[in-house]
Every structure is written in structure tokens, then in C-alpha cells.
Protein: Peroxidase
Organism: Stylosanthes scabra
Amino acid sequence: MAAIIIIALVVMTIMVSFTSLAGASLSVDHYQHTCPQVESIVSGAVHKAAMNDITVPAALLRMHFHDCFIRGCDGSVLLESKGNNKAEKDGPANISLHAFYVIDNAKKAIEAVCPGVVSCADVLALAARDAVHLTGGPYWDVPKGRKDGRISKAIETRQLPAPTFNISQLQQSFSQRGLSMEDLVALSGAHTLGFAHCSSFQNRIHNFAPNKDVDPSLNPSFATNLRTICPFHNKAKNAGSPLDSTNTLFDNAYYKLILQGKAIFSSDQALVNNPKTKSLVSKFANAKKDFENAFVKSMIKMSSISAAGGGQEIRLHCKHVN
């Protein structure tokens, strides 16, 4: 879940079975005695990077989503391809992920004071929280104690929810990971940060249907603007649109835009196609605090997902297994 931009892919059968560890083996005090400096080190690394590149917060938040949705939150998205194994970060849905250096820099600083103690998965979970807080969003205590996984396969990125998903596909994707409809709507609010490339929403503005070139659920003037930015034979690699009108600020503008027909992704607009999710969209659009409270609750839940078997080690370098 940068921006939080995912290429349209068909979800295949989930190859990993998920269990939620919420409250089971994670603790907000996990490093209290073994590495009390960990949170300030990660926060410092995120802040430094964000001051130089305003896209960093969205990138880190998206990276954490994409980590948790494959093999659970085990840092597998951080591993590099090696030999014949193509890792998650090189899968089609993850090609635009960036800011891995922020995690690497934080981990290096942590290893200097607490060698072999803090997992890369925990560093990423903390960085995602700091990214939200740094952009004006809520702060929460992150449960810690994750282990790092040793498996990372690009083909498994097919499991990520695509921006073309309808509400049924979204519900199935989230429920397979123990996440509810409210979690779906709250976590989709991460799209308040970031940028979407044309390829991720061109299905809505060109050849939408045999007798409709544009998705009728799009606000007409908004659709015209998107078609100007992203013409049918677009060749500009970096062309696209901000995910909402305040895309470097963590707020509830995303939900207001959905209600106006100005959501970027099909999967965003799909949230009003179900009575329960539409009610939540309206609730969050009208009350930022309600959104923030729900987002924190759902983030803690999502960041506690573990694949069957879980992580196995504390990596010394986040790019490579020990």
C-alpha cells in the first residue's frame, strides 16, 4: 500500500498464508533495554532524507505496505536480486519504489550502536510511522520485534492489490490478510501522499469501455485535465498526477476528492460502490480526527501481519540475507 502507485496486475492465488501477530509477539518496548536509541535514529534518518526530497515520506509508507502485503512485514521488499532470483523490489508492481537508501542509512547507524539487535523489518515499520508524522499525520507507538525474512520473489508481487481493482477484489485482497473493510478504507487514505504515473490510471481516461472512452464516475473537468497530462500515446516517462490536492501533506483531502469524482485510481473510486465503505469515506471526509484514529488502528494491525513461518533472522545489511 510512494507514492502508493501500483501497476495494474491480475491477482493470482495467494502463495503465502498469512496470520496476524497483533499483540502476540510484538511489543512497543521490545528494544527498551537492548537499543533504546532506535526510534530517534530512524526518525533522524527519515527527517534528513525528507528535507532533501519531498517524495521520501510517500515512498517509505508505500514501501511498508508492499512489504507487509507479500510475505508479511519481514523486510523482504528490501532484499536485492541475486543470481537467478529476482527479488520483490524488481517485480513490475515495485519498479517505482524508491528511497531504500533511507532504510540502509538508518540501519547502518543502528548497527554502530546496537549491532545485531534491530531487524530491517522494524526499521521500515518505524520509518513508515515517521513518514506519516513528518507530513502532518498522527504519531503512534509502533509494536516491534519483527524478524527479517530470507525469501524475496518478484513473481509474488502479483499478489499486491492493483489500482484497477473493484470493491470485491479489494475486499478479498484485504480479508486474505486478516484486514477488514474499515481497514481497507482507512489504509487507502495513505493515498493522501504521493504521485501516480499515467500507466496506473490510463484505464480510466482512454478506452474505458467499448462505448465510453472515459470512466463516467470521473468528474468531467478532472478527466479532461488527466487526459491532457496523459495523452493516449503518452511517451513522457515521469508524466502523471498527484494522488490528491495536498500530496505532501497527510490529511483527509483524499476522501473529499473521492466524493467529488476526483480520485485517481479505479480502486479509490471503488470505495463508494459499497454502502459500508462509502459510509466510511464520508465519515473520514468530514472528520480528519476520525480518519487519523482509524488509520493508526489499521496501520498497527497491518504492520503486525506475518507470513506462516515468519522471519528468521536479524539482517546485518538490509539488502542481503546473513
